[in-house]
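To the team - copper (II) ion complex, inputs and output below.
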Amino acid sequence: MPLHNFHIIESTLREGEQFSTATFTTAQKIEIATLLDQFGVEMLEMTSPCASPRSEADIRAVLAENLNLRVLTHVRCTREDAQRAIDTGVHGVDIVIGTSPQLMTHSHGKDIRQIIDLAADVLSFVREQSPDIILRFSTEDSFRSSEADLMRVYLAIADLGLVNRLGIADTVGVAMPSQVWRLVNQLVRMTGLDIEFHGHNDSGCAIANAAAALEAGATHVDTTVLGLGERNGITPLGGLIARLYTLNRDYVSRYNLPLLPQIDRLIADICQLDIPFSNYITGSSAFTHKAGIHAKGVLADPETYEAINPGDFGLTREISIGHHLTGWNAVR
Amino acid sequence: MPLHNFHIIESTLREGEQFSTATFTTAQKIEIATLLDQFGVEMLEMTSPCASPRSEADIRAVLAENLNLRVLTHVRCTREDAQRAIDTGVHGVDIVIGTSPQLMTHSHGKDIRQIIDLAADVLSFVREQSPDIILRFSTEDSFRSSEADLMRVYLAIADLGLVNRLGIADTVGVAMPSQVWRLVNQLVRMTGLDIEFHGHNDSGCAIANAAAALEAGATHVDTTVLGLGERNGITPLGGLIARLYTLNRDYVSRYNLPLLPQIDRLIADICQLDIPFSNYITGSSAFTHKAGIHAKGVLADPETYEAINPGDFGLTREISIGHHLTGWNAVR
Ligand SMILES: O=C(O)CCC(=O)C(=O)O
Ligand SMILES: O=C(O)CCC(=O)C(=O)O
Ligand SMILES: [Cu+2]
Ligand SMILES: [Cu+2]
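Output:
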């Protein structure tokens, strides 16, 4: 398990912007990027410069901050989009094209042969312009694509020797962890390239799928703060941290964990959202113990009923007393 | 995959009562039980009659409603607790005892040999009193227990021929789906008994773990409405439904799906909680499409970017227009 070596691609400023109530001003984007940089995320993905002139200007504004993190932007698989991405001076370009029957029909109308040809053309074009840019190719809706189609596409792209990273995307949130493990494992074995996982949470597996990808050898996971994204969103930053922390605290010790509550709060405030009561680490109930047996155990030793130490995130636990379920055990 | 044959053990009136703000009156318990019965859950788990005289009276009150679902109560592994459970006339008794080093030290002070002897005594006692009661034995904190200890306990209990069901519990929310699969698969192969999974969500895998348990042959999954429970809770009813629906709609077609929004709303209102914006199926954003490519695809065919049809739950989708990300594709 190479779980020490993964990188977080924080996509609040791209996937997160696709959440219904998310609209970030330039100043807010800089504030968010700066805080995520202090937290320690390695990469920041921003909305395509083709979305609007503001999106383009905001990439430049974030780049001008000279943060430690690498700034990526996310574009469709066309020369025009790629050119505009390169023109911003961004560190990396994430190129995506749909490969499922649903997206081939309703998104771009191309078949697998045409997808491969187009991708080869666009990726070569980018590499010519910009020999050092971090270049990623991803299939959209990988888990409703035929496995044979996926392999055709990825093996053709890997063969070009142009990209640094391959991405897989659970675009509609249907994948099971065992499926993610298998696909990532295949790509790691067959291509030797860095592998990125991007997963939506419609069926509640976005965190488990990200963890399965890392176990299978993926190197990059996409997150957003509070999981914001299309529909009910993707793997949340705090949720991924909780998952990796409970596997082994060392996996996340390089991040500035006490900043997490501030990060969740900032995004919630900007988007006028309540942090869900059940949110990972920062939800109001995350460290509340109620039943008497639990309260008693936690008073004796917090690890009795706690896999995560709230103190590591600058938070405190709460023992709820006075309810009939708390009982005499907790308070004697 | 026996995924057609699973049963939901709805524990909002037990695990859910252990959520910080959950306190249900007798009338509310009857209302909740009735609605869950109409939805079609097979079993309802209620707080131990030993917790308070009200808890005891409420079990009798729910039993008096003569619902289709089976009513269970959840007690510690002692003759006294078991006797009080039986005395309520409940259909089933769920008995639990901790087997992890943490719980052996801080919860009950017994070693594995003593746990087995105690369980054998209590289970025999219950079976003598009540030959037909549905009897379940579960280890608490199974995933921080030694695998050898677990096997010793489960094989000894299975050998007695007294219980209908074995339970495993991810009490502090640390299990990975692959671990759950392995343990359930072992128990299915070695005991042939019904297997129940109960999983907390501290590290975001409660839904994936429940699905992995079912794939491995588990027969019962514990849920609560909105996932309410100790700390950030357990597998949510709606989340489990979303997970199984996206695997195969037939797996959940026997449930009255359009009641789900009413169920989530009822519990949120009683507990004075906001339904999380990102909640499965019933969150405000669950069926909102924003980016232009998404909006365009969904207008052409909703399945382009939707794995779940909101109409199946009496809900509607929303296409967010007018934002710079929606773009011309969506509205031309
Ligand atoms: O570019 C990617 O890998 C992911 C694009 C995306 O947001 C998705 O497919 O859900
Ligand atoms: O009885 C059980 O199986 C589960 C008890 C419980 O709530 C837990 O261990 O989290
Ligand atoms: Cu996405
Ligand atoms: Cu529990």
